Every structure is written in structure tokens, then in C-alpha cells.
Amino acid sequence: MAEVQKNGAKRIKVPEFLNDQLESAKERLSKLEVSAEKALKELLQKGKASRKDLEALVARISKDDRVAELKGKLEKLQKTGAVRAEELRDRAETFRAEALERIGEFQEKAVKFLGVATREQVEELHRELDRLAKRFEKGQKARPSKRPARKGEV
Fold first, then answer.
1. DSSP E strand boundaries for 45-113
2. Contact of 3 with 14, CB cutoff 8 Å
């Protein structure tokens, strides 16, 4: 039996017929290791070359006048767009306020035209009826209203 050194100091006894296979496996592993190192070095070189190409491309694009010009145009459009949006927002707010005012006026005109009591008049009438109902329950006489009667009311 042949002895094979393992982990530096220890020797393991291996049968002779396995010794040849073990040697061939060692050779294949060393060849594989060499080819793996070679492939890794090639990949590193390709990666560095690609990085340099990318850096050159980025530098070229950033130096390009068109990019700077487009950035300037974009900033200008953003500023004018913001100003225009503010103007439109102000116009819309003005229009909304005017519309609400006109609607209120139309409501008042419609109420006057139809002869319908306003909300304030209905609420005042409701308060007066509540006051009268309380007095009636207490058995007191009702006092005349403080409010003067309108034309056509009895």
C-alpha cells in the first residue's frame, strides 16, 4: 500500500490501484484551477474595459451641448409652466367666487319673485311659534310680536 500525505503532516495509506486514479484527479483539478484563474482574469479585464467604455460614453454625453441645451429648455419650461399654472389657478378662483356670488343673487331674486319666505323669516317664525306654544302651555296670554307686520300680512 502506498502512503499519501494529507493535510501536511498526516499520511493515509491508500491501496495501489487507487493511487493512479488519485494522481489523475489531482492533475485534472490543477488544470481546472489554472483554467478557472485564466477565465477569471479575462473576465476582470473585460469588466475593466467595459467600465472604461461606459465612463467615456458618459463623459461624451455630459459634454454634449445638446444635453445641456435640453436641460436649459426643460428648466425654462418648468418655470413658465409653474407661472402659467398659477395664473390659471387665480383665474379659476376668481371665476368660482363670481359664480357663487351670482348664484346667491339669483336665489334671492327667485325667492322675492315667488314670494316665498327666506330662511331667516322661517326661522324667526319658528321661534315665535315656540314662544307662543310655551306661553299657551303656561296659560298666559300671548303678547303681540315685536316685529312689525309686512304689507299684505294680517
1. none
2. yes
Residue 30, in any domain of the structure: yes
Q: What are the CA-CA distances from residue 17 to residues 22, 27, 29 (Å)?
A: 9, 17, 19
Residue 57 lies in a domain: yes
* Domain extent at residue 18: 1-63
In a domain, 140, yes or no: no
- Residue 23 covered by a domain: yes
Number of compact structural domains in the chain: 1
Measured CA angle at 20 (ends 15, 24), to 5 deg: 140
| Cβ partners under 8 Å of residue 44, min gap 6 | none
pTM: 0.34
Each of the 154 residues of the chain gets a pLDDT tens digit; together they read 555 555 555 677 777 777 788 888 889 999 999 999 999 999 999 999 999 888 888 887 777 777 778 888 999 999 999 999 999 999 999 999 999 999 999 988 887 888 887 788 889 999 999 999 998 888 765 555 566 555 555 4
What contacts 69, CB < 8 A, 6 or more positions away? none
